[in-house]
Amino acid sequence: MNRHWIRSTFDVAGGLVALFYILIVNGAIPGVTTPALGLALWTSSFSQSFANVSPFAIHAVNFGYPGTSAMAFGLSGGLVESWLIRAGLDVPDAYTTMVALWLAAAFVGAILFARRMGAARHVAVLAATAWLSTPIVWGHAGFGMLSLGIALLPTYFLPLLVLLDHARATAIFGSIVVAIVAVFMDGYSFMMFATGSLLVCICVCMTGYRERRRVISVVIPVQVVSLAVAYVLYRQYSHYASYDKAPIDFFRAWGLDLSFIAVPTAGVHWLWDLLGLAKARSDAWYYGDGSVWGTTFCLPLLIGGMYGAWRSRKNRFALSMAVVALFGFYMSLGPTLKIDATRPPMPNGTPAFAATSDPLLMPSDAGTISTGSQWISRKLPGFKLMRASYRWIALCLFACWVLFILALARDRAQRVSVGFFVAVILLLAPHPVDAYRQSSLHRRLMADIESNVIGPMRHGVRGPVVAFSPFGNDFLGAYIAARLNLLAFNAGGDKNYAVAYSQWPPDMVRLRDPAQPGQDLGIIRFLLDGTGDSVIIPYFDLFYSAQIWPCNPAGLSPRVSPAFSSTEVDGDCVGAFRRYYSRTIQALNERPYLKLMETPWFAVVTLGDAHRSAAERTRLLSEIFADVTYPIVIAPESAPGAAIQDFLLEDGWYSRENGLVWSKPSAVIELPVPARCGTASCSAVLSFGAFGASSARPVHVHVSAIDDAKKWGATEIVSDVSATQMRLPLPPGSPSRRFRIEISNAATPAELGVSADIRRLGIGLLRIDLVTAND
Questions:
Q1: Tell me: the pLDDT tens digits for 529-538?
Q2: Residue ranges with strand state E in 541-672
Q3: Are strands 724-730 and 682-690 parallel, antiparallel or unpaired?
Q4: DSSP structure string for 132-151
Q5: What is the C-alpha to C-alpha distance for residues 739 and 124, in angstroms, rounded to an integer?
Q6: What is the DSSP secondary structure assignment for residue 32, as one 8-state letter?
Q7: Which of 680, 701, 689, 686 is nearest to 745 (CA)?
Q8: What integer pLDDT is reported at residue 354 of this predicted model?
Q9: How far is CA 650 from CA 91, 510, 676, in A?
Q10: Of 310, 399, 452, 506, which alpha carbon lies 20 to 30 A from 540's?
Q11: CA separation for the pair 708, 711 (Å, rounded)
């Protein structure tokens, strides 16, 4: 009894030490480090927003206004983090603790899996430690929930392993739970789990498994139903209409190069760097990015898997895992086999990365031979979205891990297993000091954002509804809004941004690059219309600064104009933003009815206290409309004084061109009503052309007044390409009048064979004249 207690104590102590090592390697020590920055901010924006509402909230309300935002992935982690925030933890520590808890769950799940395969307790602990300290796990910490999804693969497969032995109710329930957790954790690992589990079920039946009838009647239906329930729940939650499908050349570029498996990358693993056996790689020469070659060195685990497959070749379950390993390896290669494939050099010997039209893609002739997997990546649901092909290697490595455990678990020479897993831990370990410094830096940077941006902004923002300008995929905009419990139009995440943009009012769409001439008018209109209460102009990029705070070393920001991107910033990228926006900030500061708060990191624009009433806002708007004079000749975006036309072109217009602006099938225009129209009956005359109009294809243009009690409307049938005119009444009583223009049979130039342009074009507006009843 005493010996058993001592052994149990050592097992627990050893497990805790192993878990602490795993947390160090993955940068998840609560109160000390944070595993990532960009994805931590994105996930935390949702978690903070959930926490602002209730413990059961699963949609973010603080960004994507006027709608709500669902997490495209990571809800399994974001929800846990929200509970930790409500419990009182600071956001960086809440995120880190959430990651640590899921890693602990993955650690326990891997131990239970190994034990069920017959491994001794100390071997199971070492096996779990080896799995969670592989680069395919810790190397993806910057990708948020992808890392946790891969770490949890043994846990996901555990109920299936139990079901193959006994059809227990707990295992059936566990299958449903892990499928739901997996689909809401990460799409890549869910697809690996779904594919791998179904392959196991099929293979054990085909190889004459002793309980084939039970597998067919119970295990496979349970697995299929679990995966289906999880998928349906996710689709009901996300409501994303579609997902962007990457071209096959993207799958090819992000396929696994065989050299990455065999030769480690310099700067990733301390032992191989010490021995001088690592190779320097960069995206200037290699296809993909650092995650492709920095997470896929796995030769020791592959060798162990091959040895395990040979040693247990008579075991039917081992054969099924061998099939899973082969399938994962095959899919990880992508459509083209690569063996140290590099980008072709330019004549001067430098890589063609900068000169490539799209450096994210790889042509088919850049590899060795076709693998034939392109039809899977093009045709099969789910597989079409797995564009980072190399990540399939995680499924292969999991199967190799299982094969080695299975081969030696019941072997008397347990030392072989111990030695192998210790070797895997040592050979695949990162630089421990560098890993700690990087993850602790992430925590300090999140604290820096809190002290320099979020704290001061609490005192400058007025009202709940805000907008950040310029807009885009705004990781930091969403995070700031959630931390301050605001309602921001901006959203973080490609899918969330696309959904939010589709619901934005025209005033929000106008808030483009604040440094462009006349953009101060867009901000003023946003405030005077009552669309929002504050406009925030950050002196950092709301997406790229979330990856490298405060901004990348060159200070570049693709969101703003090339003029800024090519400016010499002398390392002070925040100051460069401030100087770049200075003209607009000065123009706003000169408006007496605006209140401007400026800090070294951002500016906040609001209406002054005396000008916040509806009547006062209408009066100020009338003054601005008074600056619009007829005739209004459409001018390009860059023309001097042309920005005032953004007041007129509301929803449904493409960018202005030289003397022309195309409408979409439905568009709204607002026309000023001059003061002299109070005594004379005025009309605006629109001169336009209708795209694709001909005698064989007449175009119907219907114009109607918005918010008009008399429901004024008129229709013009255009049957040729010559300019057409329509009169729109401008009755007195308001500074402007809004009209909706609708074209029922609008077409694209591509449809009519004119060009490859896929914009659906309505009318091409040329100019607007003012006439009175006497004209």
A1: 889 999 999 9
A2: 594-598, 602-607, 632-633, 661-662, 666-672
A3: antiparallel
A4: HTSHHHHTTGGGTHHHHHHH
A5: 71
A6: T
A7: 701
A8: 46
A9: 39, 8, 24
A10: 506
A11: 5
Q: Following DSSP, what letter does each residue of 480-535 receive, concatenated?
A: HHHHHT-EES-B-SHHHHHHHHHH--HHHHT---TTSTTHHHHHHHHHHTTS-SEE
CA distances 522 to 48, 53, 351, 466, 531, Å, are 30, 32, 43, 14, 11
Mutual angle of helices 153-165 and 393-408, in 10-degree steps = 50
Residues ≥6 apart with Cβ < 8 Å to 308: 318, 400, 402, 403, 404, 405, 406, 407, 408
Residue 339's CB is within 10 A of a number of other CB atoms, namely 11
**pLDDT, tens only, 87-131:** 999 999 999 999 999 999 999 999 999 999 888 888 899 999 999
Range with lowest mean pLDDT among 12-16, 160-164, 433-437, 666-670: 12-16
CA angle 472, 473, 474 (to 5 degrees): 90
Rounding to the nearest 10 degrees, give the CA dihedral for residues 643, 646, 647, 650: 180
In terms of phi and psi (left: phi > 0; alpha: psi -120 to 50; beta: otherwise), the region of 621 is alpha
Taking residues 441-464, what's their average pLDDT?
92
Tell me which amino acid residue 11 is. D
Quickly list DSSP for 352-415. TTTT-S-TT---GGGSSSB-STHHHHHHSTTGGG---GGGGHHHHHHHHHHHHHHHHTT-S-HH
Q: 543 or 11, which is more confident?
A: 543
Q: Is 316 exposed, middle or buried (0-12, 13-18, 19+ CB in 10 A)?
A: middle
SS3 content of the chain, % helix, strand, coil (to 5): 50, 15, 35
514 preceded by a cis bond (ω within 30 of 0): no
The dihedral region occupied by 424, where left means phi > 0, alpha psi between -120 and 50, and beta the remainder, is alpha
User: In the Cβ-directed half-sphere of 209, how many Cα atoms lie within 13 Å?
Assistant: 21
Task: Specify the residue for token string 């309980």.
Answer: 211
Residues 6+ apart with CB under 8 A from 562: none
Query: Scanning the structure block, which residue is given the tokens 């409501």?
Result: 239
Instruction: Please name the amino acid found at residue 22.
Output: I
Residue 512 CB: number of other CB atoms within 10 A?
Answer: 18
State whether residue 669 is helix, strand or coil.
strand
- Tell me the average pLDDT across 284-313: 91
pTM of the model: 0.88
Q: What is the mean pLDDT of residues 163-187?
A: 91
Question: Rounded mean pLDDT of the chain?
Answer: 88
Helix 75-86 and helix 169-185, axial crossing angle in degrees, nearest 10? 90
Q: CB within 8 A of 526, min separation 6: which ones?
A: 467, 507, 508, 510, 511, 532, 535
The predicted pLDDT at position 568 comes to 47
| Residue 169 near residue 177, CB atoms below 8 Å | no
Q: How far apart are the first and last CA of the chain?
A: 109
Q: Maximum Cα–Cα distance for the chain, whole Å? A: 110
Radius of gyration of the chain (CA): 31
Question: Cβ(536)–Cβ(456) under 8 Å?
Answer: no
